[in-house]
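Continuing the batch. This is chain 6 of the set; chains 1 through 5 are on the previous pages. Same settings as before, nothing changed between runs. Recording input and output for traceability.
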Amino acid sequence: MINKPSKNKMRHKRHLRIRKKISGNTIRPRLNVYRSNRYIYAQLIDDTTGFTLATASSKGMQGLESRINKEAAARVGQAIGQKAVELGFKNIVFDRSGYLYHGRVKELADAAREAGLEF
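Output for chain 6:
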């Protein structure tokens, strides 16, 4: 019998491989993306101190028909981009957490770039 590895385990392996190479610091924090079945979350993290600087998610947003589509991801990207610029961060490190750079993750990244972030 053939055992097919789960997609989430494969994603987790990709995430660990990526995290070996990238980390955020006080000058250039890491923008972490988490995509669940219902929502999408984004965090700005300073890995040297271990603090989360800003967060945004589609969970608490009003006026969305669905919280899992590309529109919701774009609004989360816009929100986290505005928060980062308010905190004085322009350059960040993008951490896609092992997800493919496609669909909702891409929409979030593009909206964050439009809000003024560079990565």
